[in-house]
Amino acid sequence: METTTLTKKTTAADHKVKKVLIICSKGSLQDVYAALIMANGAVMDGIETHVFFTFFGLDAITKGKLDKLHVPTVGNPSMMPHVPTVVAGLPGFESLASTMMKKEMEKLDIPPVSEMLEMITAGGGRLHGCQLAVDMFKLNREDFVDELEDIITVGDMFGLAAGEDSHIIFV
Questions:
Q1: Is the CB of residue 71 less than 8 Å from the CB of residue 50?
Q2: Among 62, 149, 162, 166, which is most exposed with the fewest C-beta within 10 angstroms?
Q3: Of 10-14, 45-49, 88-92, 117-121, the least confident
Q4: Contact of 148 with 4, CB cutoff 8 Å
Q5: What is the dihedral of CA 109, 113, 118, 121, to 10 degrees?
Q6: Are 145 and 51 in contact (CB under 8 A)?
Q7: To 5 degrees, how large is the angle CA 6–CA 11–CA 16?
Q8: What CA–CA distance (Å, rounded) separates 43 from 45?
Q9: Average pLDDT over residues 75-85
Q10: What are phi and psi of 19, to 5 degrees?
Q11: What is the pLDDT of residues 27-71, one digit of tens each?
C-alpha cells in the first residue's frame, strides 16, 4: 500500500515582512522620494519601519533643503533618450526639470518631502541620521527636522535591522 505525505504549501502570507530598514544615501528628488514612498507604504501596511539617512540623503531631513531637492540632469542615464547631454547641462535646465517633476507629482497628489516625513512618523515610522555623515558634514541636531528620532552609528543601524522577516533596502 502506498502512503502519501501531505505538506503545507507556504505562501507569501506565511513570510510577511515584519520590519524594514530603508537606507537613503542620495539627496536627489527621485532617490529621496523612492525611499519615502517605500517607507510610507510599509507604515501603511503595518510594517515596523526605519529610515536611515546617510551622506547626501541627509538633505531629505535637513531644514532648508528638504523641500528644495532637485532632479540631476547631467550624467543621469535616464535623461539620455529624452534630452541630449549638451542640453541637460545648460544653465537653468536642472531647475526646469525639477519644476516639471514636482508639477507631475502634484497632479498625482504626492505631498512634499516635509509632509511625507510627517506622514511616516505619524504612522509610527522612525527616522534616523548617520552619525558619521553628520560629523563629516559638520551638522548638528538643530540642523534637522523635528521628526528625526536620533543620530546613530552604522552599528546601531544594523541593530535596527535585526530579527526574523526583516529587510534592508538601499536607495
A1: no
A2: 162
A3: 10-14
A4: no
A5: 110
A6: no
A7: 140
A8: 5
A9: 65
A10: -145, 140
A11: 999 999 999 999 999 999 999 999 999 999 999 999 999 989 988
- Please identify which residue in the block is written with the cell numbers 529621496: 32
Residue whose grid cell is 519601519? 49
Amino acid at 125: G
The residues that bridge with 24 in the sheet, in sequence order, are 53
Q: Which domains can be identified in the chain, with CATH numbers?
A: 18-67+112-171 (3.40.1260.10), 69-111 (no CATH)
Residue count of the chain: 171
Nearest alpha carbon to residue 57 among 67, 49, 66, 48: 66
- For 155, the grid coordinates are 552599528
- Report the amino acid identity of residue 101: M
